[in-house]
Amino acid sequence: MQTMNVARNAWLAAGLPLEVAATTVDAQCGSSQQATNLAYSLVASGVVDAAVSCGVEMMSRVPMGATIPKDPDVGKPVNKNYWANYELTSQFEGAERIADQWGISREDCDAFGKQSQDRLAAAAAEDRFGTQVLPIDAPDLGEDGKPTDTTHRVERDEGQRDTTLEALAGLKPTGRPDGAHTAGSSSQISDGASAVLMMTEEKAAELGVKPLARIVDTCLVGSDPVLMLTGPIGATQKLLADNDLTMDDIDLVEINEAFASVVLAWAKELGADMSKVNPNGGAIAHGHPLGGTGSVLITKAVHELQRTGKDRAIVTMCCGGGLGTGTLLERL
Q1: Residue of 219, 288, 303, 319 with catalytic role
Q2: Bridge partners for 147 per DSSP
Q3: Are 2 and 293 in contact (CB under 8 A)?
């Protein structure tokens, strides 16, 4: 469902003009944010006057690792040449090593997981996502957990749930037997899709479109592939340094909650004011449809700036293989 050029296939399946080209980007979890950054580059450079960046992940039908060949004759995506340079770890192990290195406890992660759910509940009660979410008809799941032929109407993220610290304390760790993370402090497996429309100021004026924000700067940085998930630290530092800013100049941060330790380690390194970070909850509560999440976070940031009247936001994500995406936004 996500193979071939899924962006082109989706465009044509929607009956849109065939003359419009499309390409698919792979930056693992950061794919749609990197797609946004690349689309911004095309618009800013004058190559195109309008572009749409999108992301999609159907984790109920396309599980993680589904694209890795099962035929040994085809070969493996990670081979002995990689192992000669780096240890191959899982994201679960990377998250636990981050917790170890930054002194983050199980209790810290549980508290962060509860905060994510509490913030989503408060935001949902105020319908803060009404300007950015489109309802869809989604397949029902059978007793085997697989999609059926019947559908139900989805009008909001379905990851929201009542959460207590006592309930979180009773969950088993997902990584190590004595690990810091559980399902309650890790991102949820989700289906989701997102899109961001960008254009030049001249094109927006021609079409009578009122822009909500502008992209000031972008980056994609490499990070330790063994820890794997520390990329947001370097991405944020680069955006701040390149634009002569400090964290005090940033009104809002949307950082993907792949695991609680990712955000908590980033916060320690950046000295972040956590009241400005994921104020409406993050992936622990909303869910994390992998490649679709980046443009979701950009959408959330743009609309939160509009809602609050604040000026500047950073969006950042960790990505498999040791990458960090970054986008600096300003409200218009």
Answers
A1: 288
A2: 141
A3: no
Which residue is catalytic, options 29, 54, 109, 219? Answer: 29
Assigned fold of 6-66+89-104+187-331: Peroxisomal Thiolase; Chain A, domain 1 (3.40.47)
Beta bridge partners of 331: 213
Angle between helices 293-308 and 31-44 (to 10 degrees): 70
**Catalytic residue at 288?**
yes
**Which residues neighbour 292 within 8 Å (Cβ) at sequence distance 6 or greater?**
32, 55, 56, 57, 192, 193, 194
**DSSP 8-state secondary structure symbol assigned to residue 111:** H
CB atoms within 10 A of CB 15: 7
303 has catalytic annotation: no
Q: Do residues 291 and 31 make contact, with C-beta atoms less than 8 angstroms apart?
A: yes
Whether the model clears a pTM of 0.90, i.e. scores above it, the answer is yes
> Catalytic: which of 109, 219, 318, 319?
318
Strand ranges (E), the chain? 50-58, 136-141, 147-154, 191-199, 213-222, 252-255, 312-319, 323-331
pLDDT tens column, 13-71: 999 999 999 999 999 999 999 999 999 999 999 999 999 999 999 998 898 988 888 88
Q: Domain extents for the chain?
A: 6-66+89-104+187-331
Note the helical H segments in 45-180.
Answer: 80-83, 91-101, 106-125, 165-169
